[in-house]
Amino acid sequence: MIWKIAERKRGSDKSRLTGKGTRLLAILGTTLAATVGVTAVASAAPAGCASGYACFWEDHSYVTDGSPYNEVRFYMYYTDFNYLNYTTNKDAHDNVSSLYNNGNSQSIYVYKNENFGGQAFGLSKTVGDNDLSNSSGGAPGGFNDSIDSGCFTGWC
Ligand SMILES: [Ca+2]
Ligand SMILES: [Ca+2]
Ligand SMILES: [Ca+2]
């Protein structure tokens, strides 16, 4: 139910700095912090995910085609994973199956649609999910091979 709060229409970037958006983030942050606190345990960053970044892999277990270094990542935010390429030059649209927030202080939010649209979930710093195809780990179920944008708190 809380994920519905995060649903936003594409092209609503204009509202990202409005009071409404700020309140939405504040509500989300509170709700997500409570949720993540009981369902996810911080873990060591996967190989290949540099400090300060949110990292994404095409396959489960923090790898793409067997390599932990074949990832996509962002710092601050990224609005369209169609234009975010793995080192093998394939884009990350609708294929991420594991992710990790290696940020230094902020939570990340990831969305099913481009431009922070559609269903979303949050991950606290140093929390990941090594398999989006199940509901265990830091992410809820239902997000495998669907993510298309993401941001650190305050950049959505
Ligand atoms: Ca995948
Ligand atoms: Ca999972
Ligand atoms: Ca998508």
Q: How does this model look, in words?
A:
Mean pLDDT is 83; it is low at 1-39. It is built from 2 helices and 8 strands, in the order H-H-E-E-E-E-E-E-E-E. It has a single domain, classed as Crystallins (Gamma-B Crystallin, domain 1, Sandwich), CATH 2.60.20.10. The radius of gyration is 14 Å and the shape is globular. The two termini are 20 Å apart. The protein has a 4-stranded antiparallel beta sheet with strand order 2-1-4-7, with no helix packed on it. It has a 4-stranded antiparallel beta sheet with strand order 3-8-5-6. With 156 residues, it is an alpha+beta fold. One calcium ion binds next to loops.
**What's the order of the H and E elements?**
HHEEEEEEEE
Which regions have little confidence, pLDDT < 50, spanning 5+ residues?
1-39
Quaternary organization: single chain
Bound molecules: calcium ion
- Could you say which overall geometry the principal axes of the C-alpha atoms support? globular
Structural class: alpha+beta
Strand runs, count:
8
CATH superfamily: Crystallins
Radius of gyration: 14 Å
CATH topology group: Gamma-B Crystallin, domain 1
